[in-house]
Write a structure and sequence with these properties.
The protein is mainly α. The chain is 56% helix and 6% strand. 41% of the residues are buried. The structure holds glutathione.
Length: 296
C-alpha cells in the first residue's frame, strides 16, 4: 500500500525567497562585501554555512539563486551548480569555493586569523577536536542520507525501514556526543577550570548550560529542523523523546544564529513536497538516493 499516494501531491513548487527571520537576515546582508554567499532559502547545506558565517562573525553578502536553473554566476563558483558557493570578490578574476563542509573549514580557518572566533574545541586539545569531527562525519555519511531516504520512501514498508534507519542514525550521533562528554569532560586531565570551560564550549549545546553551537551542532541542525517540520508532516515522524535529547534540540533551534537563518515552516513544507512524493527530477541529491549512489 502506498502511504504517500501520488494523489496527495498538490504540486507545490520550492520557494525562491527566504521568509520570516531568514528574510530579515538576508536584508541585513544585501550590500556588497568581499565574500558573496550563493544560497537557496530551503537548502540545509546552505543553512549550515550561513549559521557558521553568523557565529564566526565573518562579513558576507547573501545572494539567493535557484540551483535547479543553474545560472552562470552559480556555475562560475560551483562546478555542479550546487549551493552553497562562495565568491571572493576582491580577486580578478574572482576566486570561489563550494561544498558546504569545505566552506565550513574555510570559515573556521579565516575566523582564526580575523575575528578570533571558533566553533571547534581549542586547538591545544587535538583529541577533543577529533571527536567533534567524528560527530560531524557521522552526520554527513549517515544522518543526511538517511533523511533523504526517509522523505523519498514511497511504500509503507520502505517508510518504516527508512524511519528506523533515521532513528538509528540519530542514536548514533547521541552515542558520539556521550562519548565526547565522557572522554573529554568526565575523565579529567584538564589543567584547570578555564580549559575545562573552553572544552565544554567546544562540545556545544549537547552539554547542559552551554549556549554556543559546536561544529557538529551546526553541521546537523538544518536536517533535524527539517525533520521536525517536514518528516513529521509527511511521514508521521516523531523525534526521540528523552529530557536530554529534547534539551539539546531546544538549545539548538533557539540559538540566535540558527533562528536568524530559518524561514517560516510553510516554506519548508512547500519546498519538500516534491521530495515527499519523490517527483522525477527533484534534485541531484534525490536522484542519487533513488539510484543508490553517494550524494553529490
Ligand atoms: N555536497 C554539496 C551538496 C549541496 C546540494 O546538494 N545543494 C542542493 C540544494 S539543497 C542543490 O544545489 N541542488 C541543485 C540540484 O540538485 O541541481 C554540499 O555539501 O554543499
Amino acid at each position: 500500500m502506498s502511504v504517500a499516494s501520488k494523489k496527495g501531491d498538490s504540486g507545490k513548487a520550492y520557494h525562491t525567497e527566504c521568509t520570516g527571520d531568514a528574510l530579515v537576515t538576508v536584508k541585513a546582508h544585501a550590500k556588497d562585501e568581499d565574500i558573496t554567499l550563493f544560497g537557496s532559502c530551503f537548502c540545509p547545506f546552505v543553512q549550515r554555512v550561513w549559521v557558521a558565517f553568523e557565529i564566526l562573525g565573518i562579513s558576507y553578502k547573501y545572494h539567493e539563486v535557484d540551483p535547479y536553473k543553474k545560472p552562470k554566476e552559480l556555475l562560475d563558483v560551483s562546478p555542479k551548480g550546487l549551493v552553497p558557493g562562495l565568491r571572493f570578490n576582491r580577486y580578478s578574476p574572482p576566486r570561489s569555493l563550494n561544498e558546504s563542509t569545505v566552506i565550513m573549514e574555510f570559515l573556521e580557518d579565516l575566523a582564526s586569523t580575523t575575528t578570533q572566533r571558533s566553533i571547534l574545541p581549542p586547538i591545544a586539545n587535538a583529541y577533543a577536536r577529533g571527536l567533534v569531527r567524528l560527530q560531524a562525519d557521522h552526520v554527513n555519511r549517515s544522518l543526511v542520507p538517511a533523511f533523504y531516504r526517509y522523505i523519498q520512501a514511497q511504500t509503507e514498508e520502505k517508510q518504516i525501514e527508512a524511519g528506523r534507519e533515521f532513528h538509528t542514525s540519530i542514536e548514533g550521533l547521541v552515542s558520539l556526543f556521550e562519548r565526547a562528554e565522557r572522554e573529554i569532560l568526565a575523565l579529567g586531565g584538564t589543567s584547570g577550570e578555564g580549559e575545562l570551560e573552553s572544552l565544554r564550549r567546544g562540545l556545544g549545546v549537547w552539554i547542559p548550560g552551554q549556549t554556543e553551537l559546536s561544529w557538529a551542532d551546526v553541521m546537523t541542525a538544518p536536517w533535524l529542523y527539517r525533520a521536525k517540520i517536514v518528516l513529521t508532516h509527511y511521514r508521521g515522524f516523531q523525534m526521540p523523546h528523552g529530557e536530554r535529547f529534547s534539551g539539546w534540540l531546544g538549545r539548538l533551534f533557539e540559538h540566535p544564529a540558527f533562528k536568524a537563518t530559518c524561514s517560516s515552516e510553510q516554506l519548508y513544507l512547500d519546498s519538500y513536497e516534491r521530495y515527499a512524493y519523490n517527483r522525477p527530477n527533484t534534485s541531484m541529491v534525490a536522484t542519487a538516493i533513488n539510484e543508490g549512489r553517494v550524494l553529490p
